Amino acid sequence: MMNYVWAAMCCVGLVWGIAAGRAAAVGAAALASGVEAVMLALRLAGGFALWCGMLEILEQSGAVRAFSRGLSPVLNRLFPSLKPDSQARRAIAENFAANMLGLGNAATPAGLRAMRALREEEGAGVQATDAMCLFLVLNASSLQLFPSTVVSLRAASGAARPASIVLPTLCATAVSTLVGGVSCMALARRGKGA
Fold first, then answer.
1. pTM (two decimals)
2. How many C-alpha atoms does 92 have within 13 Å on its Cβ side?
């Protein structure tokens, strides 16, 4: 669906530029933007490679498993239906670790694995379970200890202090995660009581 939206926006912009008699300016801007997009992608590739590689190293070294054990009290309270050694629990821990490092792109595959495992382990059919809804809310709010993607973007854009957003991001994501989690758990309890 979004492909159609983007295509429509590009077509409208192109037609508008030509109708306004600025076809040469539209063509020059399109070429310049294409070059800038490729340069930005190349500048960001190093940061993404570093952090995604770091996450892979953490997973293969067993640090994600240790992180999962360290999160056991929290995961037990949030997802009481999951067994301590379940696949869903490991995928949730990996997703949380990636989100805490600000690696949304690396968190997505772990989030998809977690949802599949939650569906299998909880015997969910078409309808999402309370655990699936809670995980989705916590994933979307994504508590970030270090927003590496945004810091990389700011550094690539030439910001004087690219990491100056770490504390505000931590505060904002902590509040959003807390509010989202508490709201989701309250709605789940209310649904069971009805």
1. 0.69
2. 30
pLDDT, tens digit, 9 for 90 and up, residues 77-127: 888 888 877 888 888 888 888 888 777 777 888 888 999 998 888 877 778
d(CA 52, CA 7): 31
Residue 60 in tokens: 């293969």
134 and 187 Cβ atoms separated by less than 8 Å: no
Greatest distance between any 2 Cα atoms in the chain: 65
Handedness of CA 116, 122, 125, 131 (dihedral sign): negative
Indicate whether 182 pLDDT > 90: yes
- Selection from 133, 92, 127 nearest residue 109 by Cα: 92
| H/E segment holding residue 165 | none
